[in-house]
Amino acid sequence: MAHYRVIRNGVLLGTLTRTGSDIPWWEGEFDPTPEFGLVRSLFDHERELLDADENIDAWGTAWDELSVGHVLQPLDGREPITEFLLHIEENGRRASWRY
Hints:
The chain has one domain (4-98). 25% of the residues lie in helices and 39% in strands. It has helices spanning 40-52, 56-67, and strands spanning 4-8, 11-22, 25-32, 70-74, 85-88, 94-98.
């Protein structure tokens, strides 16, 4: 059962299902919608910069651009989360996030 909807500028990009944690990060499965294809390259670029671990400023800029309009909508009735980090792995099915 999904735990969150990932929404960007009112468009549903997919759902997150928690499968574990690596404190302070949640880990899980990402089930993308077709609309995720519109921003997948932004997530791939953000992840490449993070994995390179060479220029945290470049990663910060990439995340700032990517995160505009992003909301995590908990499916348990809690308030939407607007300040969070979300990494989606290159295969587009695994994710880690924190808020």
